[in-house]
Amino acid sequence: MTIVRLDAGPRMSQAVVAGGLVFTAGQVAEGPTVTAQTEAALAQIDALLARAGTSKANLVSATIWLVDMAEFAEMNAVWDRWVIPGATPARATVGAPLAAPIFKVEIAVVAALD
Q1: Which residues, 6 or more positions from 3, have their beta carbon under 8 angstroms from its beta carbon?
Q2: For residue 98, what pLDDT band results from cuts at 50, 70 and 90?
Q3: N or C: less crowded end of the chain, CB within 10 Å?
Q4: DSSP assigned state of 69
């Protein structure tokens, strides 16, 4: 099996392509609100999926970490605009602290290749 790593660093890769799937690292972004951070993280995911040869139309699963579950509806409003109806992935959302206090949301996805 061929494994391709995108933006490989000493600790992690931003995405790994293996076995017909693309696995993204958790994506975070700076911004004043969970809306802004979610939009930016999803844009980063779009770019990674495109570089790997797929798109959000092929999502298989998603994991979302949210610092404040009181912002669940706000994050979901952005998510709902982003996902393609009928092509929504299996998803888990977890309330958890993130690596730095400036981050409010982190999103990782798995997508099938085209």
Answers
A1: 16, 17, 18
A2: very high
A3: N
A4: G
